[in-house]
Amino acid sequence: MGYGSLKSDQNPSYLRRKIKTEPLDLSTVEMNYEEPEKPKSQRPLGVQQAPTYFPTDEEFRQPLKYIESITAEGRKYGIIKIIPPRGWRPTFSIDSEVLGDSFLDMALNSMEGRFRANLTYLDQLFKFHKQKGSFIKSLPQIDKHPVDLYRLKRAVESRGGYHKACEKRRWEEICRELGYSQAGKCFSNAVTSLKTIYQKYNLPYDIYLEKIKNSPKNQKDDDKKRLKTKASPNVLNKTSTPCKTEKNDLLDDLDNEINNNSIKREPCIDKNEEEIIDDNKMLYNVTNKEKLSEKRNTRHVQKETNKIATNNLKSSNTDTEDMDSTSIKNKSKKICEKCRKEADSSSVLCYSCGIRYHIYCLEYSLTNIPKREWYCNKCFLGTSDFGFEDGNTYSLKQFQEKANLFKKKYFAKKQSTKKQSYPSETEVEEEFWKLIENTNVATEVEYGADIHSTTHGSGFPTLEKNPLDSYSSDPWNLNILPLSPDSLLRHIKTNISGMTTPWLYVGMCFSAFCWHNEDHYTYSINYQHFGETKTWYGIPDSDADLFEQIMENTMPELFEQQPDLLFQLVTMISPAKLLDEGVRVYAIDQHANQFVVTFPQAYHAGFNHGVSLNLKY
User: Fold this and answer.
1) What is the per-residue pLDDT for 420?
2) What is the band of 600 on the pLDDT scale with cuts at 50, 70, 90?
3) CB-based contacts of 95, cutoff 8 Å, min separation 6
4) Is the dihedral of CA 257, 258, 260, 262 positive or negative?
5) Whole-angstrom Cα distance, residue 370 to residue 372?
6) Residue 49's closest CA among 555, 593, 538?
7) DSSP string covering 473-484, please?
């Protein structure tokens, strides 16, 4: 399953592969972890340990039969670890002098689904008021503290909405849930203020969304979306990379000083179409911020799409293409998208897609042409697609140097200046989840994910290049394991990257892979060539439905706009939250020269403690 990234064509891989650099010194990395296995009696977050298996030499000769023999027990955990017999150590075979693929930039807290849902909601809420002629300069406050409008919205929703909350007098409950004082006049004032804030900020947006959802056109689009989702397994989305739409510009719109007089009316004037276009051009060129905002609205080309996936895309998007072609015709003919009549001076032009509408044809009517840029419903609501930005290109040695320096500096700040030691696995794990859930600071790391082994080598020797090396034909060599006699994948006559052809992963401290299960509910086998610990979390397949339900309930806005969110490998949620909701979660720590197996339909996620190189199919 592929990661979401925004790939650039400025430095194509066939050019990068010709550049030679200093090779990686293998003596500087852990190649064969031989410490006795010590199960942890207690892990961070209350997660229990998944089992580790030690096959005998005889059992180890037949990989898939051995995995089959432990499947009944292993599926109860979703993941397990296999430690090869002593002495098994395949030859490492990668030209580490050759530059690798571009790595992915990861802002850790952006992966946390609840945080991303909060920012997405606030961003759209601010745009809504701005589009209506009002501008939210800053968040409202109670007792000199800003009100979390997203939490307020969720609290009201959980009580049946605004009108139900008023009818049943639930505002005191809502106020307490948001953490305001429960005593005396101050609490009474807080209740009144919170209700007023909701009326002023959230309620108009609620009404707008309700109109959009109940519009006949939107209901038809929803039906099509549901049919497409059910009709196909979404193979394209699982093997390609999602695109990231504009980053939330909420922080750019928020002032540092918070005040209650936060909504200001923006003047509206009548304009003809040419003036609207001129205004849009002027606004676009005024500041770098506006340029960046427009750039972020542009969807990027996907990293890779094979011929089969391309055909599936063309087939499944027939209705969308027809609709888009109609919109293009309407745009060229200067007619209203909704009523199909000629656009006139009472028309408004979408700043993003350029489609025209009469102001009286909109779900919410405008009395005048907005002075500021205006977005149609389709562009305004968007899809909340999210992916990781393309990072730098490194050789293994270059990445090792950067990653080691990052970890050293990061934990040096956390430890006492008098006594500094290398952080333990527990310390790194605890710090990782703190960073994931830190809404104030975005710590960025890089990850080499989904690197094609056909281009860069798999790390295992091959019969073509190393015919005399016994490990070239070893049954646990992941180049040949997918095509072994016991594997159904041998019947596939074409290479499928990540399934019949393994992928490489190069990690640094805190780089992560988000919750997902494998394409077509297959097994996955992951081998660590070298490096520091890689922590895995697994959920048994029997809890998969409950996990999906919890994810949707926790961040409904993200799933509403992007139903295939879990196919994209871009969303994290703490195992502690899942355990609280009744989902069973287990963990395992993988080291050099060890295998991790995930079972069909088992969701899994994890992160790296430092520099590591893994191979997975």
Assistant:
1) 65
2) very high
3) 23, 456, 457
4) positive
5) 5
6) 538
7) G-TT-TTTGGGS
For 570, half-sphere exposure in the C-beta direction (CA atoms, 13 angstrom radius) is: 32
**Nearby residues of 515 by Cβ (< 8 Å), 6 or more positions away:** 547, 551, 566, 569, 571, 572, 573, 603, 604, 605
| Helix, strand, or coil (residue 112) | strand
Q: Do 60 and 89 meet the contact criterion of CB atoms below 8 Å apart?
A: no
Tokens standing for 166?
């008023």
DSSP string, 495-559: --BTTTB-EEEEE-TT-EEEEE--GGG--EEEEEEEES-EEEEEE-GGGHHHHHHHHHHHSHHHH
C-alpha span between 33 and 190 (Å, rounded): 58
The most confident of the ranges 29-33, 486-490, 550-554, 557-561 is 550-554
Residue pair 276/366 in contact by the 8 Å Cβ criterion: no
Domain ranges of the chain: 26-112+387-616, 134-214, 333-371
Distance CA 302, CA 5 (A): 8
Homologous superfamily in CATH for domain 26-112+387-616: Cupin (2.60.120.650)
Question: How far apart, in whole angstroms, are the C-alpha atoms of residue 359 and residue 381?
Answer: 18
Return the DSSP state at 201.
I
To which CATH superfamily is domain 134-214 assigned?
ARID DNA-binding domain (1.10.150.60)
Residue 200: CB atoms within 10 A of its CB come to 15
> Both tokens of residue 12?
């194509």
Q: Which of 466, 443, 456, 549 is nearest to 501 (CA)?
A: 456
Q: Position 327: which residue type?
A: S
pLDDT of 245 over the 60 cut? no
Find out whether 243 and 4 touch, Cβ atoms under 8 Å. Answer: yes
Q: Per the structure block, which two tokens stand in for 511?
A: 């780089």
Task: Give backbone dihedrals phi and psi of 577, rounded to 5 degrees, phi first.
Answer: -65, -40
- Give the Cα separation of 541 and 538 in Å (integer): 9
According to CATH, the superfamily of the domain at 333-371 is Zinc/RING finger domain, C3HC4 (zinc finger) (3.30.40.10)
Per-residue pLDDT tens over the stretch 129-156: 887 777 788 899 998 889 999 999 999 9
Q: How far is CA 409 from CA 28, 86, 387, 509, in A?
A: 19, 36, 27, 12
Rg (the chain; Cα; Å): 27
103-129 confidence digits (pLDDT tens) = 888 888 889 988 888 888 898 898 888
